[in-house]
Each structure stands twice: as C-alpha cells, then as structure tokens.
Amino acid sequence: MTTPIPQDSSVSWTTATRYADFAIREARGVSDAYERLSLAVSRDPDLLALLDTLPAAKRQPNLLFGVVRLLGGPVENPAEFHEYVTATWPAIAAELRVRSTQTNEPGRCAALLPVLAELPQPLALIEVGASAGLCLYPDRYAYRYGDQLLGSGAPVLDCALTGRPPPTARPEVIWRAGLDLNPLDVTDPADVAWLDALIWPEHRHRRTRLRDAAAVATAEPPLLVQGDLVDDLPDLAARAPDGATLVVFHTSVLYQVPASRRRAFADVVRALPGHWVANEDPDVLPHDDLPEPPAALHNLLALDGRPLAWTRSHGQAMAWFG
Ligand SMILES: C[S@@+](CC[C@H](N)C(=O)[O-])C[C@H]1O[C@@H](n2cnc3c(N)ncnc32)[C@H](O)[C@@H]1O
C-alpha cells in the first residue's frame, strides 16, 4: 500500500501525511466522502498551511470534517470543501480550538455486553471518557447477534459475533456514572448536534442510532462528572453503591491520553475493587501474546488486563480469541 505524500516542500509533510494516512487506513472502505476529502486535503497546500497555524491536536481530519459539517459546510466535494474552508477559516479555526473529537457510539455496547453479562450481577458502571454517556445504557438497548435478538425496542445494535455463543441476558445495572474532561449533555440540542456532526456522512444508520440512544438517555440522564480519568476516578468510584459489582470501563478513549497518563490510569483502576473492561486500540496498553490482529482496524477487548477479543470500532463485529 502506498501513501501519497506531497513532495512540495512548502507544505507541511506531517499534516499531509496525517490526512493521507487517515484516508487510507481509516476512511477507505468506510466513507468514500472522507477518503476523497482527506486525500484532497493531504495534497492541498492552502488548507495544510491553514491547519498548521493550529496546535497539532487540533489538525485531526475527523475534527476538521466534523466542524465543517457542524457549520453546514460541504464535505462531499473536495473543490467545494476547499472553497468553503478558505472562505470561512476564522469561524472554523475558532471551533477547532475549543472542540475535540467526542464521538459517542452506543453501538460499542454490543461489544461490551458479552463481558458485562458474565460478571456477578447487579452492576455499578463507571465509564471513563464517557462523552455524553450513551454507552452507559447496555441494559436498555436491544441487540442482534447474527439472527439472535436480545431485548426489544430501539436502538437495536447489530454485531457479527464469532468464537462463542451470544449472551442470553442483558446485565442488571443499578447505578451508572461517567467521567469526562468535557461531558456532553444529551438533553442539550447543541451537544447532540455536535455528536451528529461527528458521524461520517454516509452513516445514516449511526445517526438513527444516535437519536434512539439519546432518547433512552434523555429519559433518565446519566450522572456525568467533569474530570480526568486518573485524578478523579477514585472519588467517583467511592460514590458507587454497596451491593453491586463495580465495573470501570472505557471504549476508544486512551488514544487521546498521553502514554504516561495511560500507565497511571491502569495503576489507579487496578487498585479499585471490582472489574476493569477496556475496549481500545491494541497499541494504547501493553499486552503480551496477542493473536495476529485482523487486517482492518480493530479494538482490543480486555477484562482486568486480560485480552479477550477483537472488536470493530463501532461495535459492529466481535471475534473472541480461541
Ligand atoms: C472518542 S470519545 C469516546 C466516547 C465514548 N467512550 C464512546 O465510545 O462512545 C473519547 C472521550 O474521552 C474523553 N477524554 C479524553 N481524555 C480524557 C481524560 N484524560 N479524562 C477523561 N476523559 C477523557 C474525551 O473528552 C471524549 O469525550
């Protein structure tokens, strides 16, 4: 696989590489629009120069495309995107500086459920990096593992599960809380609009799922605490009720956390009672003896640091290790 890198020395190689890499490793086969757009940005000296006026963390493809969608700009046609971004840059830059990618994907509950259902019930859940907290309702959503339906109502979370039979019961959750540097409020239309803007253009089923999950959460809004997953987790864990298994979990969060803080987090969570469920990029935490990862990008599901399964990023597939 070749990654097209602009040879023009007047543009930033690093930002260009990031966009070319995103196009090929993340968007290809998942979003034609974002593959096209990201490749175009990687070869666009004007846009790269604008992006390079921002801190590195604010140059992410997902963040730029989400902000443009939020502002109502075009993301299907690279020429129109170029025109819009260059004409609207001050407003775009202002949003990029204050926002971060907080995609909240309730579909990930389909990959958490098989582990949660096997723990001693009932559960007290803490999600670190919870965004709007939509993954805190694994007991409320319905699931379809192959042709096996579990639960009823909406959303129905589809997951292609291999390696073990699907769960036959949902967990009993008696307490749920989330911790996030910047919790989003599922009852605030502006926050839901941002979550919607972060969903990739072609993913209509994920927009429907977001609306359905937001309705579940709005009926009983989660306790969400603003704080850091290292510094503030022990205090939140101390608020969990007795008589339930405490489960601290996280999905697609640690890639946003520096390596030294990830190690500190692992130490904090291991010192707590209960269990730790991680669903993360396999590179963010050290693991020995992992099976060969599948070709497509996958997360690694682990219980108390023990790797169990590969999962797809939106919970649409899960493969238990043999
Ligand atoms: C990509 S979102 C994932 C949200 C949710 N876990 C999901 O899977 O749908 C990552 C979230 O982690 C949060 N986050 C990043 N670093 C954090 C930290 N040090 N402490 C708490 N939350 C953090 C971000 O604010 C963001 O809401």
Please explain how this structure is put together.
- It is a single chain.
- With 322 residues, the protein is an alpha/beta fold.
- It is 35% helix and 19% strand.
- The chain has helices spanning 13-27, 32-42, 45-51, 61-70, 78-98, 109-116, 189-197, 204-219, 233-237, 259-270, and strands at residues 123-128, 142-145, 148-150, 156-162, 173-180, 223-226, 245-251, 275-280, 299-303, 306-311, 317-320.
- An eleven-stranded mixed β-sheet has the order 3-2-4-11-10-9-8-7-1-5-6.
- Helix 3 runs parallel beside helix 5 (78-98) and helix 4 crosses helix 7 (189-197).
- The radius of gyration is 20 Å and the shape is globular.
- The two termini are 30 Å apart.
- Residues 1-11 have low confidence and may be disordered.
- S-adenosylmethionine binds next to strand 5.
Query: Mean of residue pLDDT?
Result: 94
- Helix-strand topology string: HHHHHHEEEEEHHEHEHEEEE
Strands of the biggest beta sheet: in what spatial order? 3-2-4-11-10-9-8-7-1-5-6
**How would you describe the shape?**
globular
The helix tally amounts to: 10
Q: Strand content of the residues, in percent?
A: 15-25%
| Main sheet makeup | 11 strands, mixed
The class by helix and strand makeup works out as: alpha/beta
How far apart the termini lie comes to 30 Å
Query: How many runs of DSSP E, i.e. beta strands?
Result: 11
The Cα radius of gyration reads 20 Å
Question: Can you give the helix content as a percent range?
Answer: 25-40%
Question: Which spans of ≥5 residues are poorly predicted at pLDDT below 50?
Answer: 1-11
Give the names of the bound compounds. Answer: S-adenosylmethionine
